[in-house]
Amino acid sequence: MSLSRCGEDIRQDQHQLLEGISELDIVTGGIPSQLLVHGALAFPLGLDASLGCFLAAARYGRGRVVLAAHEGMLCAPKMGPFLLNAVRWLARGQTGKVGVDVSLKGLCALLSGHGLKYSLEPQLADGLAVYCCKAYSDTQAKQLQEFVAEGGGLLIGGQSWWWASQNPGRSALAGFPGNVILNSFGLSILPHTLQPGCFPVPTPQTRSYHFRKALSEFQAVLSQRSGNLEKNWLAKLGADGAAFLRIPAGDVPAYMSMHRLIRKMLQSSGLPAVSRENPVASDSHEAAVLCLATELARSGTDCSKLAQGLGTGTCPSSLDPSGHPITVHINGNNPGSGESWVSTGLYVLSGHNAEVSLPDAVACSGLKVQIGCHTDDLTMASKLSRAPVVTHQCCMDKATQSLSCLWGGLLYVIMPKGSDLGPLSVTVKGAVPAPYYKLGETSLEEWRRCVQKSPAPWGELATDNIVLTVPTASLRALEDPAPVLRLWDEMMQAIARLAAQPFPFRRPERIVADVQISAGWMHSGYPIMCHLESVQELISETHMRGSGLWGPIHELGHNQQRHGWEFPPHTTEATCNLWSVYVHETVLGIPRARAHPALSPAQREERVREHLAKGAPLSNWDVWTALETYLQLQEAFGWEPFTQLFAEYQALSGIPQDNAGKMNLWVRKFSEKVQKNLAPFFEAWGWPVQKEVAAGLACLPGWEADPMRGHVRPR
């Protein structure tokens, strides 16, 4: 069946389901997912302005299905008219009862109020015309599918974004219980959220959007035959197509044929040569091709032909990796509080499969493998210098796993937090060695041989505390990485010292350079991401010692911030700079006034004057102004109170959740630590110091050298 033939005309069904309804108010207190409508007999019922679907229906066999993107919609009185239409449409005039799962008791009042017979059921039971349930259990998936196929009606609701957040590395399209039930019906629940609101009932024009119809028109556009795909359809198609390809095709003929058709379509059109010099708009045909191609390769479809001729940033797919397996030895311990990427020093070619084997004893230990380190998702960017998603991660739920990534990438084994597997051997087929230098382990001879010969476009410099991922072209000019990495370890030790964290780090921090990142000039996280322009400052000891390294240390400072002593949004971009100041002064020997232009004495004084002239409003206390408060304390009392408090907070319980409570706790703790009454100082800055806190600190000596003396606001 061609893509343009999407089954029977469903306008009559849509009319029955939406009859008498002008708007759909889905503000029910929950955050819905978006729905994917992909079956030939499935159709959307509720759409937001971006064509995000929150209500949908489908015919399947002799039965019918109605799906809501959050279970709260199935019990909300404001959704009553729609729910009554839905139950009647699902019943198809049958006289059987409506079965309501015990978890959806809120629906019962609506049904009984309109004379509809119902029964509360712990699970699907015999004799029901319609069954209503949540989408969070797949224990009866087969029975529900048979129930619908034989003429039953299924009203079901749920979101999958929470499941996805709790199951990183697993596909919600494949593993979320609701999708195990729904995929066969041509409906799926996506892990992407949708902003709830009150939406008009879709017009015939918007209602006509359908993934298969859009794909058919897209095929016509790519083949330059015809087709006129609207931009909002195009943007939706890229996301929907990528999601559809995450549904396991298995032995389902309809899915397998769609995969083959998409591969043929993409091979015919070819991949766009996207780069920094040749970016593409995110709502363009080229962007949609990038999304579809990425997910097609992830699905296991052979995309080696598609990968031929890829541009910069990937390893030429024409290179044939040695047929001989490569065995590397890694550390399977991860005492850190989050997942840890462990480098293998190997690179998987674009479009090629890598076969990764681990010892049988550690299979199903929660390990994952990942191709690529450029994990920023650029889906929301207006222009693309690379594909939106260029990494692939999968669970090692068996001893040998095969995976590929269209764009290629460095290969990692991901250790779950608390892993204590000890030394591990990892054997990989289908990869090539990448430049990799580990301080204290890699010899200079090994480094020079590898960096000059490796075809991999990316390599890594590593210590036990930091891993830097940069282009191989930049590494080739680095004769000896040891001096710069020793300096990095000094800086990392200083970061740990100020944060009162153990050194070496429980999990090495990572900084990855990319052609495009999702936010800002750099951003924190794991890994920290930066632009290619920052590479030289990361790997040049001369540059660091001469000009400093404010940005990367700022981001590393973000990674040290903790909820207990952070007051967002005021201190989000302020306290992280304590680490920048500390590292520059204690390791690089660069005083704060020279470390950043904003810390010149003149600028600091001017900021204080401006803040006080405005009446010291808390709304003005952020970034450099907020940092000044901490710098004044540090210049008077040194770094020790900060380090001691950061350590104390790690074991502190009962920390308030609100900013005012946390700020007053900090006022009290810092005052007690330095044995000075700092309440007047913080009040002068505009902090909401509580009367009881100020009274409790009045017994401490006053701070005679308070730089804010004379600026205390009356309480």
From TrEMBL:
<dbReference type="Pfam" id="PF17291">
    <property type="entry name" value="M60-like_N"/>
</dbReference>
<dbReference type="Pfam" id="PF13402">
    <property type="entry name" value="Peptidase_M60"/>
</dbReference>
<dbReference type="GO" id="GO:0005886">
    <property type="term" value="C:plasma membrane"/>
</dbReference>
<dbReference type="InterPro" id="IPR035423">
    <property type="entry name" value="M60-like_N"/>
</dbReference>
<dbReference type="GO" id="GO:0044325">
    <property type="term" value="F:transmembrane transporter binding"/>
</dbReference>
<comment type="subunit">
    <text>Interacts with TRPM8 (via N-terminus and C-terminus domains); the interaction inhibits TRPM8 channel activity. Interacts with TRPV6.</text>
</comment>
<dbReference type="InterPro" id="IPR051244">
    <property type="entry name" value="TCAF"/>
</dbReference>
<protein>
    <submittedName>
        <fullName>TRPM8 channel associated factor 2</fullName>
    </submittedName>
</protein>
<comment type="similarity">
    <text>Belongs to the TCAF family.</text>
</comment>
<feature type="domain" description="Peptidase M60">
    <location>
        <begin position="339"/>
        <end position="638"/>
    </location>
</feature>
<dbReference type="InterPro" id="IPR042279">
    <property type="entry name" value="Pep_M60_3"/>
</dbReference>
<dbReference type="InterPro" id="IPR031161">
    <property type="entry name" value="Peptidase_M60_dom"/>
</dbReference>
<dbReference type="GO" id="GO:0090314">
    <property type="term" value="P:positive regulation of protein targeting to membrane"/>
</dbReference>
